[in-house]
Amino acid sequence: MWVVEHRDDGRFLGQCGIVPHRINGQVEVEMGYLFVKAEWGKGYASEAARACLRFAFHTLDVPRIVSLIDERHARSVNVATRAGMVKEKELLHRHRHVALYAIHQD
């Protein structure tokens, strides 16, 4: 995960990144993001998610990126869908019900 700081004053906004993750016995590249609640709704998470996807697809040549999201967190779903991810399925992961959102390299 990478730290996300405000461009002008360097304050900590949150974190975003991509990590390999075993999901249902298969290794996937997962994008995750977590931002300071006071910074929600300002577009930082969406901007960071799009940057992570560009890096994964164009620099690392990763063919597919997934995100595991608790759909009760509508803002997380919004970040994923704004980045172009689509819901593929629901699953039980580490004793939690989550939705798997994914995007493939074009």
Give a description of the structure.
It is a single chain. With 106 residues, the protein is of the alpha+beta class. The protein contains two helices and six strands. It has helices at residues 44-59, 74-82, and strands at 2-5, 12-23, 26-35, 64-69, 86-93, 96-104. Strands 1-2-3 form a three-stranded antiparallel sheet, with helices on one face. The chain has a three-stranded antiparallel sheet with strand order 4-6-5. A hairpin with a 2-residue loop joins β5 (86-93) and β6. The protein starts with a strand and ends with a strand. The mean pLDDT is 94.
Strand line-up in the sheet with most strands: 1-2-3
Radius of gyration based on Cα positions: 14 Å
Total count of helical runs of at least 4 residues: 2
Query: Helicity range of the residues?
Result: 10-25%
Question: SSE order, as H and E?
Answer: EEEHEHEE
How big a fraction of the residues is strand? over 45%
Please provide a brief summary of the model.
This protein is α+β, with helices and mostly antiparallel strands and 106 residues long.
Question: Which labels suit this protein?
Answer:
single chain; 106 residues; alpha+beta; 3-stranded antiparallel β-sheet; globular
